[in-house]
Amino acid sequence: MSRVSRKQLLDESRFLAEVSTTTQPLEVFRSALHQARHELRRYHTTGSAAQDILSANSWLIDRILTISWTFHAPQEMESKRSALLAVGGYGRGELHPYSDIDLLILFRSKPNSIERLFSETYIRFLWDIGLEVGHSVRTLKDCLTQARGDLTVLTNMMEARFVFGNSTLSEELAIRIGPEKIWGVRKFFLAKSNEQLARHHRYNDTAFNLEPHIKEGPGGLRDIHTITWIAQRYFGSRNLDSLIKHGFLSDDECRMLIRGRNLLWKIRNALHFLSERCEDRLLFDYQREIALEFGYKDDQRSLAVEKFMKRYYRTVKEQRFLSDLLLQYFQHEILPRGRKLVVDLNRRFRAVDGLIEAKHSKVFERQPFALLEVFALLQQRSELRGIQASTIRQIWSGRRLVDSRFRNDIRCRSLFMEMLRSPSGQIHSLRRMNDYGILGAYIPVFGRVVGQMQHDLFHFFTVDAHLLFVVRNLRRFEIKDYDDELPFASLIMRSIFKRHRLFLAALFHDIAKGRGGDHSKLGEKEAYEFCRLHDLSEYDSKFVAWLVRHHLLMSWVAQREDISDSGVITKFARTVGNQERLDNLYLLTVADIRGTNPHVWNDWKGQLLMDLYLATSRALQRGVDAPVDLKEQVKDARLETANLLPKHASAIDAANLYWDTLEP
Predict the structure, then answer these.
(1) H or E segment at 355?
(2) How many CA atoms lie within 13 A of 602 on its CB side?
(3) Which of 93, 164, 222, 527 could, after both became Cys, cross-link 84 (CB 3.0–4.6 A)?
């Protein structure tokens, strides 16, 4: 790995000599900048660390700005009245190759005509030589007024770094915008937390978009910035190591945070160099090229781009986990509630101010099944808002306890099915389990698709994110507040028997993506084995497996065949077999299409599917259906009924006697 030589970027003495003797300074500056960027790209492609590239680029721009300032400043301009400050990412010294260069030209008081003319000339010159400059010209008083009314302006100024001029102005600015003067720590924390929530909502609350925004998306660089800003406001330090000192992060967690940040920096550098602009979206056009640049290669099992993107997704997942953890720690510190409300839940857990907390640090080691119990409790008790940060940390480190013995434990199997059968809360539990690494550990085939991309424009999310979106869509069909979205689907959903089977089908329908072969057939086998392990009857297990096997069928027939043809309807009805399968397949199909891409669903598809459903339902009523595993279905119904009866022989005997009088 080569270190960046600053002299190779800009030989300052030689450059100054050229500037002082040339009649065309614009060309000299422009040429120096072009050569330096070319050199930076060479360092990047030969393996220089991302942080070295950022630091060197910041230094380069510092020198160009300083020399430009001295070149343009008129003699009659009083030097002590002004200062040039780097703000934003440039102020942090994290200047990516084509990022905007945010500047603040700061004056002690209102600039005079000479100073105003200089500021205009200076900024115009910077644009002319090829710098993308974002600038403001303000007095100390202006800065205070603007920062008081605008959080973004304040945040930008918090990162101000002195570049040239009178350094005391920079020091005075820092004092004037400090938390003792404006935007106290509590107010700042609340505003930044809400800002992050709103930003995550804009990206569907998932880091697993197939063309992710590596800066603004969940788990991206902006999450790290938010933590840094809050720490700076609270601790007075920009250094991430301060989070270790104050007990907010362990050494390993801080290393994970920095390692992830450095990878995102490297990817962002690559994007800028490839696009030759400030491009922060990891578009399909760049993914393969960056994957090859980073040393990934195609093989028989997967493409280079899939390996690269899986690393990216797993990194941002870790970054989001750490960000959420830190925000909760800050919340406890900055927004203390005074007297805590503690409610005992059981021998292992308690609720503290609405957050579930393990009673001691060895809970999961002593009783591993509690790794699922914590999510079940959260789902069962509506007064609980989430999990305490300390317990989240224990869950994260407890992932290693989820092994084959854990999966075969009757307590674990019962807890998982209890969550799926619960009246509500499935998606929140599954998402939290996925966020903390438990879902992929408990269902290893799910773990294999965490971060698994589908390299096409049809699927908008990674496989694991898509599976959870489909479960979410099914849950929305049950909630009256969403009846106006798809009234017909909502109506059918409320009549579904054993809806947990449908949730299982949603969770497994694409579980075998990325293995090669027919993922529907492979997924059918995985779904059946999981259902049998979790004590579903033979009929129910085959029912879920059938849905997984045929989850694409209804969409194909509706969109690719002539559903006005009675022969097409009859053939489809015979494949489906009965109304119960049709109802479940219809709901799974609608939820699946709506979970692939926010823009792929439309009224035309909805009408086609509804027409196919209604025509098939009429065909089934006319009697074209072939009985589907009728003996198993009868056996399953008898077992379900027996479980509801009093546990004594006379009740069972009476039920069996009654059953024997009925036709299948």
Answers:
(1) strand 355-358
(2) 4
(3) 164
